[in-house]
């Protein structure tokens, strides 16, 4: 288990991370979210031991993060950190050696992942000759070559098409099944919703929302009503508590402030024509994220 306990980090007088705490149990995927400059990168660097917290502590399975522990960590950075003049094989041997692995073990793992990602023909090709998507696959392999106990994924799907995104998703789920603790960060909230059971949203280094995703969505009072059919939209717009009505090609989405508005909307909808759907759904994580971040910047 990874434990982050009340960490604060200053750069001179600038507080980059402010009293942040969270836990990532074995076999769980945790979301660390925030806009650019929110403190995510600084937090990652403290977790992997590149930076020391000004205050607080970080442990993995009860041990402080040092060079012995970092050999059990994998980190896929948002920025590509590949040595483009090396071949794929040379690149992965280099990273695996840094993690204390034997070359025979590195090559065995490399062959497994090259086949898994359907890029076996690129083993002896230079990184600079690969497409952005295939470079991202190599970057992922470099992060997981040591079968990490803790895996940090910062924008892992960057540059990937939908087929390869699904391939990465299956690989990430495999590490979850193996019992790895996984931290997942992405600006694509729909990806976070697919994976993360618990999350923290950072704004200016401070947590503005944290907890179990299901509970966060349940407690967030604003809901969305999905309607398919012909209804009087002007009457719906005039209902107190209706914040927005969106007309899409195949459905109408009514955003409401809380559950008490549902019955009033339904009274209008039942007088409509050809109604084939009326459903009330929790807001998306993207809506909650925008709301919480916006509230924090307005203070």
Structure overview:
This protein has 2 domains: about 1-215, Rossmann fold (3-Layer(aba) Sandwich), CATH 3.40.50; about 220-280, Lrp/AsnC effector binding domain/regulation of amino acid metabolism (RAM) domain (Alpha-Beta Plaits), CATH 3.30.70. Helix content is about 35%, strand content about 30%. It contains 11 helices and 14 strands. It has helices at about 40-45, 65-70, 90-100, 105-115, 130-145, 160-180, 190-195, 215-220, 235, 260-270, 285-299; strands at about 1-10, 15-25, 30-35, 55-60, 65, 75, 150-155, 180-185, 200-205, 205-210, 225-230, 240-245, 250-255, 275-280. The strands form 3 sheets. The protein has a 6-stranded mixed beta sheet with strand order 6-7-8-3-9-10. The protein has a 4-stranded antiparallel beta sheet with strand order 2-1-4-5, with helices on one face. The radius of gyration is 23 Å and the shape is globular.
């Amino acid at each position: 288990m990874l434990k982050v306990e009340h960490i604060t980090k200053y750069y001179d007088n600038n507080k980059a991370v402010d009293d942040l705490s969270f836990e990532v149990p074995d076999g769980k995927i945790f979301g660390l979210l925030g806009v650019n400059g929110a403190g995510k990168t600084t937090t990652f660097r403290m977790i992997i031991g590149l930076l020391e917290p000004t205050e607080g502590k970080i442990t993995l399975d009860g041990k402080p993060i040092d060079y012995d522990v970092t050999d059990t960590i994998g980190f896929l950075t948002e920025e590509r950190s590949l040595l483009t003049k090396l071949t794929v094989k040379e690149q992965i041997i280099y990273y695996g050696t840094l993690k204390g692995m034997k070359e025979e073990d590195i090559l065995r793992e490399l062959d497994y992942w090259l086949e898994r990602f359907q890029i076996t023909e690129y083993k002896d090709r230079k990184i600079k000759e690969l497409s952005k998507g295939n470079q991202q696959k190599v970057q992922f392999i470099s992060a997981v070559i040591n079968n990490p106990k803790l895996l940090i994924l910062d924008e892992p799907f960057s540059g990937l098409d939908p087929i390869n995104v699904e391939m990465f998703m299956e690989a990430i789920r495999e590490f979850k099944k193996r019992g790895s603790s996984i931290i997942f960060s992405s600006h694509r909230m729909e990806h976070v919703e697919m994976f993360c059971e618990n999350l923290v949203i950072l704004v200016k280094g401070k947590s503005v929302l944290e907890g179990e995703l299901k509970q966060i969505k349940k407690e967030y009072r604003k809901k969305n009503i999905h309607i398919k059919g012909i209804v009087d939209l002007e009457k719906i717009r005039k209902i107190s508590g209706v914040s927005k009505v969106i007309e899409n090609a195949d459905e109408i989405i009514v955003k409401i402030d809380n559950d008490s508005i549902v019955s009033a909307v339904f009274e209008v909808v039942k007088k409509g024509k050809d109604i084939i759907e009326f459903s009330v759904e929790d807001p998306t994580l993207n809506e909650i994220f925008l709301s919480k971040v916006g509230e924090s910047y307005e203070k």
